[in-house]
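Entry:
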Amino acid sequence: MLGSYSQCITLKVPKDITFKSSYIRLDFQVISAILKEYFDKTTTINIVPSFGMCLPDTCSKWEIKEIFTKVYRWKSFPIKPSKVFSYNTIELDTKAWILLLALTSMIIVIAVATLLDILALNSPMKDDQSSESEFLLEEKKDKNSNILNKILEISTCFSFVRNLEKLSLAEPSKDISCIHGIRFFSMCWIILIHTRYDLTALFANPTYLKEWNIGFLSNISYSVVAVHSFFVLSGFLVTISTLKKLSDSSFKIVPYYIHRYWRITPTYAIIMATYIILYQFFVKGPMSVEENSFLEICNKGWWMNLLYINNINNISCMGWTWYLAADMQFYVLAPMLIYSLYRWKYFGIIFNLLTIIAACITSAIISYQYDFPSSNFFIKEKKLDLFTRLYYETPWTNIGSYVVGILTGWKFFTDGKLQLNKITIRIISTAAVLISLLIIFFPINTLNVKFTNAIFNSLHKPLWSICISWLILFCLTIQKGIVHDLLSLRMWIVPSRLTFVAYLVHPIIISAFVNSRENLIIMDSSLVIFFFLMFLTASFLLAFFITVTVEIPLRNVAKYTPLLKL
């Protein structure tokens, strides 16, 4: 019962009235034994009854909760108030106007740079001198170029046409072509998981919750290993790149770190600033009142995201970006792990394997000590924060997947192709498929034994990572078969290059849709699929625009700064 949000916030009061209308959403805690049993057995998602009201903005949250608490005690209701969220009409503040001005200026720069680029490309080459003036379009340096030509040369970094061409026409590396398919499908999986989880806020038919834990969608949505495919890919690609530079003595540690930070942080910062500052002004609805409380946390802890430590503290802004923090932390440690393999083969193997084992043991101990379930989808709200902070997002429980990627990259770089006969390859491939299916479709919601949960939490991530590593080695060395052909299709190249931005923006898109809805939805599986495809399309379209206008231009600018070159 959410009421009419739009009618409440647009309500006009007489001029002599000193207060304005304020939308209030009151969430309740189920205390009836019968209702509590129903909610606990029919769903693993923390769904609570909500009640929307339109009250004067002079009423405080504490007063509202206190009134309903007294009513609950008086009438012995089966539910009691737990949280109060309020929303008042707000106008753009100074920070919002500054950000809008900055974004507008960026668009103007891109438009001007694109226009200059088009004019230069279409200008005829009358003689050698005119041909000389067009060297900037070919991105070649000339010591005798004047200041104006240098400015024009740099301006081409922001040309939409040129950056679109770089994104769409660059030739893929034949050695790692299947990586694009793995990356794209992993991103689709993550969007599906978040779609299914976030849509529970809009359920108008609680009876559908009985079907929520049954079927194909349920199994793949409850699995949390999708992100570990990215850890494996990241470790693999970093290892290949680093070993190449170590081999030709061109590896430099300072540019290694600076280039990485510049590669992802500016785009990350722009998206985060837009989310923190502008989201609340453009996304309005009965569900947005809770999102606004998350934005208040971002106002305090945004700087932790830019330092990539937001996964090891109690303040979490843009919670899904814990992966970026963990990946950056692993990237910092990677040279030590990779160099040990490069310099001392057997010591390096042991060192890396011990790191994986340590991560497994740490996961088991933490899981057992705090009695964590086998997935964050099977944990109630009171323990969810503890599960997230101590186990799910921490680097010491996730580094194993990254190190598996490092070992895979080292194996591929040093040996090239797998030196195995066909029978052995088939046996390993069959085992990898069976283990992967077991991890995804095993009924982990039935694991109620403390020790069993600890074992599962300890092993499922490295086992999944090993299966993904085998898939990579199989595709890159055998280079034939339906799996290789599917993952190596050229159609995955561009979407694969958009996954970084798509990962950042897709939860914002899903949240904006959910929070702007005024009415609940009668949900079923076909509708979930429809929303997934809608969010998938919207995420990659927005990622395409941001990549071409922000990420690639900033990458181009790095060419003019020695420290940013790699």
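Residues 5-87 form one domain.
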